[in-house]
Amino acid sequence: PDRGHALHGLVRTLPWKCVEAPAGRRVIFTAVLLAHPGWPFPLAFTVSYSVGPGGLTSQLTTTNIGRSPCPYGAAVHPYLALAGARVDEATLDLPAATWVATDDRLAPLDRRPTGYGAQVTRAGHTPYRFDGSAPIGNRQVDNAFTDLDRRPDGRVEATVTTPDGRRTIVWGDESVQWWQVFTGDDLPERYRRRTLAVEPMTCAPNALNSGDGLIVLQPGEHHTLTWGVRMDRPPLPDDRDL
Q1: Is residue 32 exposed (0-12), middle (13-18) or buried (19+ Cβ within 10 Å)?
Q2: 123 near 129, Cβ under 8 Å?
Q3: pLDDT digits 0-9 by tens, 11-66
Q4: Cβ-based neighbour number of residue 88 at 10 Å
Q5: Of 24, 143, 175, 208, which is the most exposed, with the fewest CB atoms less than 10 Å away?
């Protein structure tokens, strides 16, 4: 409210119902967003979380259950624990060529090169170049990144590495066009710069006004965002004996 806009969208405070939790490692929830003043589009959501050899995988499927086309975008907000380290000591590899500058309300202003990869010679070493080559240090980030490098299978990945060599990889499918990175500078003291948010997003911040990456769901149409997290650790001294 102090910035005059909605920071986390319309679903963050919805109640979710567990509809399936089979024996094993998968759970499914549903929720409904009803039409209301300021948002005349009813939507139905199904989200699943499963754990397996590849880590955590989640799918968010949204269906337009209304009678008119609905402007739509989605994001998820994972905070990555840093195993006793601070954000300052961790490294981030975020293959993105562009970051978005913001004003004092965190509203987007313009796109700027990060200097990642092939853009190094043009942009130089900007504060928003995260290629895993140096710790995050004292950089404060609450910005969106786009123009993402993709793997052959269409996925995007961001990797956080702590000083002990542990790696956490957040990934998203083809629907993920943006990342939001938040270094936690205004969180309560116990969390401040002790977790790093790396958030897969389908559209740009403020997309309902700018149209940047906005999806339009026709009545009865649905959209699915798939993302996940996996964790690697360095070999322990006794691993060679296993």
Answers
A1: middle
A2: yes
A3: 988 999 999 887 778 999 999 999 999 899 999 999 999 999 899 999 999 999 99
A4: 13
A5: 24
